[in-house]
Amino acid sequence: VQQFLPGFVKSLKAQALSSSEILVRWQEPAEPNGVVLYYEVSYHAPLLDSSGTVFMKTNATQVVIGNLASDTLITISVALINGAGTGGKTLVNALATVASTSARNTEQTT
């Protein structure tokens, strides 16, 4: 079966769970163009114990990003990987904040 590069993930959203955790959720692309191998989630943010870009692989359509420095704005990207390669990255900004119930919820930009 021939595969092509996948499309962008849909409905990417980020929600603060606490001052150091953010829940990131998305939906599979309308055009996965092949068998989904995994999703790559990446973000760059000051962490409690380090700083730098973090890459995560998951088969799920949500992840919890933890160990974040409080009140830090981060940019998160999610891309689908299939047998043909990596699809386009969908981006969302998120803020981990102490007031988790009134945290800024942000939605995707592509």
Task: Please estimate the helix content.
Answer: under 10%
Distance between the termini: 28 Å
Order of helices and strands: EEEEEEEEE
Q: How many β-strand runs?
A: 9
- List segments where confidence is low: pLDDT < 50 over at least 5 consecutive residues: 100-105
Globally, the shape reads elongated
Which percent range describes the beta-strand content? over 45%
In DSSP terms (H or I, runs of 4 or more residues), the helix count works out at 0
Explain how this protein is built.
The chain is mostly beta strands. The protein is built from no helices and nine strands. Strands 3, 4, 6, 7 and 8 form a five-stranded antiparallel β-sheet that branches. Strand 1 and strand 2 form a beta hairpin. The chain is elongated, with a radius of gyration of 14 Å.
Name its key features.
single chain, 110 residues, mainly beta, 5-stranded antiparallel β-sheet, 4-stranded antiparallel β-sheet, 9 strands
What's the gist of this structure?
0% of the residues lie in helices and 53% in strands.
List the helices and strands and how they pair.
Elements: E1 10-16, E2 22-27, E3 36-46, E4 51-58, E5 62-65, E6 72-82, E7 85-86, E8 90-96, E9 106-107
Antiparallel strand pairs: 1-2, 1-9, 2-5, 3-4, 3-6, 6-7, 6-8
